[in-house]
Known about the structure:
Blueprint: E1 42-46, E2 52-56, H1 64-74, E3 82-86, H2 92-99, E4 105-110, H3 113-125, E5 132-136, E6 149-154, H4 170-176, H5 183-193, E7 194-205, H6 209-218, E8 222-232, E9 239-245, E10 256-264, H7 272-280
Parallel strand pairs: 3-4, 3-6, 4-5, 6-7, 8-10
Antiparallel strand pairs: 1-2, 7-9, 8-9
Helix pairs in contact: 1-2, 5-6
Amino acid sequence: MSLLQSTARADPRLLTPRTPPAGDPVVGRDGIMADALDGEELTVDSLTGSWRITQRKRGHRHSTDDLLTGWYAANCGVAVQRILDLGAGLGSVGLLALSKFPAARLTSIEAQEVSFALLERNVKLNYLEGRVRTIHGDLRHVSIEARAFDLVTGSPPYWDVSEGVLPADSQKAHARFELRGDVRDYCLAAERALAPGGRFVFCFPSVQRPRAERAVSAAGLAILRSRDVIPRAGLPALFSLFCCGCPEDSVHTEHVREVAYVVRDADGTQTKEHADSRALFGLGL
Length: 285
C-alpha cells in the first residue's frame, strides 16, 4: 500500500528486461505472466543504487512506505538467510531487504495478476532468478514451509472496502483495499512461517495502530518495537512500522515505541535520518 509516492527517476532505456549472464543459477518460478502488461505504459526506476524496478506509469507504484519497511527490515537485528515477502506487489519491499542480506534468498507471494507480472519482470531485470522464488497465489491459501524464514515482510492493504471508493483499476484496488484478506491474515501467515528467533516487519496506517496491535497479538506474535512515520514536521504520523517476533523473543524485551521518524523538516527539506536511510540503499537525495 502506498501513502507517499516515490520520486525516483525513470530511465526509458531500461524498459526491456535484461537477460541473466550465461551460467547464472536459475530457480524455477511459477508461470511468466507477461500478457498482463500488454499495452501498459511502464517506467523503470531506481530501487537501490544498483537495482531497478519496472512500474506502471499510472498504476500502483513504489513508495516511501515500501522504502522504510525495507529499511526497518534491514535493521531487524537478526541473521537472515531466508526472507518471505507477503503480498509482495511489484517486489520492492522484499527486494530492498534482500539487497542488505547478500547471502539470503527470497520467496515472494503475490496474487494480483499485474503486480505479479511486474514482480517477475523485476526479478529478471536485476538478475535475481538464482536468489528469488516468486509464487502467484493468495497468501491465505499458499502452502509455505513452516518455521523456515528468518525474516518475513509485508505491506498489507490499509483500508476495508467500506472506508473508501474502490478504484476501477484492479492493481490499485488490491493494493489499497482489503480484497484478499487484511492485516490479521498477514500476521497469521507470518506466524506460521517464522523460524525461531525470526522477525516479522510490516507497515500500517498510524490511525489504525490499535488494529495492527490486536492483529499481532491474535496471531500469537509480539511487537518488539515500532515507530511512527511523520511525512513532514508538524503533521500527524501517517503510517507506522512494526518489528515483531514470537512471544518467547519478548520475554526480556518489552514493546519499545521508538521516537517518531520524520521524513521532511517543516520547510520541506529532507531530514538527515531520511537521507541516511536512502543512503543505506545507495540512493541519493
